[in-house]
Design goal:
The structure holds two protein chains of two kinds.
Chain A lengths: L2 H4 L3 E2 L1 H15 L3 E5 L9 H6 L4 E3 L4 H13 L3 E7 H7 L1 H10 L5 E5 L17 H6 L5 E3 L4 H13 L5 E5 L4 E2 L14 E4 L4 E5 L4 H13 L4 E5 L2 E3 L3 H11 L2 E8 L4 H12 L4 E6 L9 H7 L4 H12 L1
Parallel strand pairs in A: 2-3, 2-4, 4-5, 5-7, 6-7, 10-11, 10-13, 13-14
Antiparallel strand pairs in A: 1-8, 6-12, 9-11
Helix pairs in contact in A: 2-8, 4-6, 9-13, 10-11
Chain B lengths: L18 H26 L4 H18 L14 E4 L5 H10 L40 H15 L5 E6 L6 H12 L5 E7 L8 H5 L4 H7 L3 E6 L3 H9 L9 E6 L22 H13 L2
Parallel strand pairs in B: 1-2, 2-3, 3-5, 4-5
The chains are: A alpha/beta, B alpha/beta.
């Protein structure tokens, strides 16, 4: 638990997701939720009660779930797919690629309980790879919100302002609110939450408040770390990343996902080609997880305030 | 050798036609569609003639008579839908769309050429009349189920047809979709399984046996209809019975012959994506001419 978390109430982003979905459902009758026996785990009981006809529960069949959602879109609906991240990304990957992205359908794919949220259930239930996989699919927008405000804003944007496939992680691992209530999600735009010129920490999702705690700890040592909140992994805010490279000379990426391929991969690729500086990527290593809770696993792999602090000290040594 | 044949725009049947005239219109349409398809594939040196010819009569019956899809209502949400799940038969779809007036006949000559709208598998972003991007097998049925649910939610009478291969039914996603179609009571959904009994490398029965397909579909809650896929009158009757009086989704087992009606292609497993020699093109064209 970081100091920021200790000083603030903690939120389950699924509540924000469920609330915004009901709001969107009230505003537009085309909105339908497509679930896979996951009404409870998506916290969509309220939506189901309010709009019983508009909760399409395909049962335990994720390939069918994404295909059905694509067909609903072809029939004039606005489908929001809700499915555990591990199964939405891996099990239905070809449907995501072909039926959503290659077909350019306006579908919102929400990955419930992503990353390490199902800690002790093991690697079968961890969606460690999802951001890396989704990022390389053409047409796909990939968003990893950090708190309830950003979660609601991203879902609202994806449904009402965007036209195309979007992948959004909805975390159940509790987080403090970091963004102000009037926060507006802008695709491809990072938010600078701490300024600094010694190094930059680029992060998102459940790691953001851990990174802010690390920046505070580093400030105690006289190290000024810039913190970029990068919810939108694709499109990436290239200007913010390259400015960080130019102005701070060192970058740390930290995410609740593979250290390779996801946010860290996107940043490293961009920096290598345009403004080469050292990039230290923190995340899940190239291994299947040992048994442990989500919090334990995050600490175990240094996806934590202490881990980020240590990485920064190492980079500056 | 490049062979080019004309394809007239036949358009849909008209309400004043007798049943015999409707059948004659579709039959002649299918003959001309096969003739054009053959030359397009031969010239492009790419295509799947066997599987295209096994569904040509089905496609012609649907687009020239059954579906309420016209150049005028192509973007009307209330149009019927057809999803070609066996996307490798794209050239038969394109040729049928052109015959129906839903795609420019001149575009056909660009089939699979660089920058053409006519990809080797259908892409809805390139061709307005294409309803789904297909190619990998087992995608069309779930999408059709979603389309049928959308119509159900709208209280619309529009129908959704999906054309799958029989080998394609080895993909598990189809069975997920069939189970759900029955659960939702999708009487507006019609699945047409192209039962030519051949897949790319061997018969379906020698690969992963589908039999008894009728019992399987019935057990999944479908209204099952067996039909000769090359008998236009029988196809008309089968499609006219959608939605089924039982309120169940319809599963039409369309018994076909891969490569039909060309003597050397029919029922021959080699003609999955085999390309004809010049002499074979000439012979096939002559056989199609004899059917006029």
């Amino acid at each position: 638990m970081t100091a920021i978390a200790e000083a603030n109430p903690l939120y389950d982003c699924r509540d924000a997701f469920a609330d915004v979905l009901t709001e969107l459902g009230e505003a537009d009758e085309r909105v339908v939720a497509v679930v896979n026996d996951s009404v409870g785990s998506s916290k969509l009981g309220g939506f189901a009660k309010r709009f019983p006809e508009r909760i399409i529960n395909v049962g335990i069949a994720e390939q069918n779930q994404v295909g059905v959602a694509a067909g609903l879109e072809g029939g004039g609906r606005l489908p929001i797919v809700s499915c555990a991240g591990s199964f939405l990304s891996a099990r239905a990957m070809e449907q995501v690629k072909i039926d959503a992205a290659y077909s350019y359908r306006h579908m919102v794919l929400t990955a419930q309980s992503p990353g390490l949220a199902y800690g002790q259930l093991g690697s079968t239930h961890h969606s460690a790879e999802d951001v890396a996989w989704m990022r390389v699919i053409p047409n796909m927008t990939v968003i990893v919100p950090a708190d309830p405000v950003e979660t609601a804003a991203a879902v609202r944007w994806a449904v009402t302002e965007h036209d195309g496939p979007v992948y959004i992680r909805i975390s159940r691992m509790k987080v403090p609110a970091v963004h102000a209530d009037d926060y507006v999600f802008t695709p491809g735009r990072a938010t600078t939450l701490r300024d600094g010129d010694d190094l930059t920490i680029i992060t998102n999702g459940t790691v953001l408040h851990r990174a802010l705690a690390a920046a505070d700890a580093l400030a105690q040592e006289g190290i000024r770390a810039r913190v970029l909140s990068m919810a939108c992994v694709k499109p990436l805010d290239e200007d913010a990343v390259l400015s960080a490279a130019r102005e701070t000379g060192r970058i740390i990426t930290a995410e609740e996902g593979l250290a390779a391929g996801g946010l860290g991969g996107a940043v490293a690729e961009l920096v290598t080609a345009n403004q080469p500086v050292p990039v230290k990527r923190i995340g899940i290593p190239d291994t299947f997880a040992p048994t442990g809770s989500e919090g334990w696993l995050m600490d175990h792999w240094g996806i934590s305030a202490d881990g980020i602090t240590a990485a920064a000290e190492e980079l500056l040594a | 050798m490049t062979v080019s044949v004309e394809l007239p725009v036949l358009g849909r049947t008209t309400p004043d036609m007798s049943r015999e005239e409707v059948i004659a219109h579709i039959k002649e349409g299918a003959r001309l569609i096969r003739r054009k398809d053959l030359t397009l594939v031969a010239n492009a040196r790419m295509g799947h003639l066997g599987g295209e010819f096994s569904i040509t009569d089905v496609l012609a019956t649907l687009y020239l008579h059954i579906l309420n899809v016209t150049p005028e209502n192509l973007h009307d949400p209330e149009r019927d839908r057809l999803i070609l799940s066996k996307g490798h038969a794209a050239c038969a779809l394109y040729t049928t769309l052109a015959a129906a007036g839903l795609l420019d006949v001149a575009d056909l000559e660009t089939f699979v050429q660089p920058e053409s709208r006519l990809n080797g598998h259908p892409n809805r972003l390139y061709v307005d009349a294409v309803e789904a991007n297909t190619g990998p097998l087992g995608h069309g049925l779930p999408i059709a189920v979603g389309q049928a649910i959308a119509a159900q939610l709208d209280g619309s009478p529009r129908r959704v047809f999906v054309l799958t291969g029989d080998g394609e039914l080895q993909e598990g996603s189809n069975w997920e979709a069939l189970m759900f179609a029955a659960q939702r009571g999708l009487a507006n959904l019609c699945v047409v399984a192209d039962r030519n009994r051949l897949q790319q490398g061997a018969t379906t029965e020698d690969t992963n046996d589908l039999t008894p397909l009728d019992d399987k579909a019935r057990a999944f809650g479908m209204e099952v209809v067996d039909v000769d896929a090359h008998d236009i009158g029988a196809l008309l009757d089968a499609f006219a019975a959608v939605p089924a009086a039982s309120g169940k989704p319809t599963f039409i087992i369309a018994h076909s012959h891969k490569g039909h009606p060309i003597s050397f292609m029919s029922d021959a497993v080699a003609w999955h994506h085999k390309l004809p020699t010049d002499a074979e093109v000439e012979q096939a064209l002559a056989e199609l001419e004899a059917l006029a």
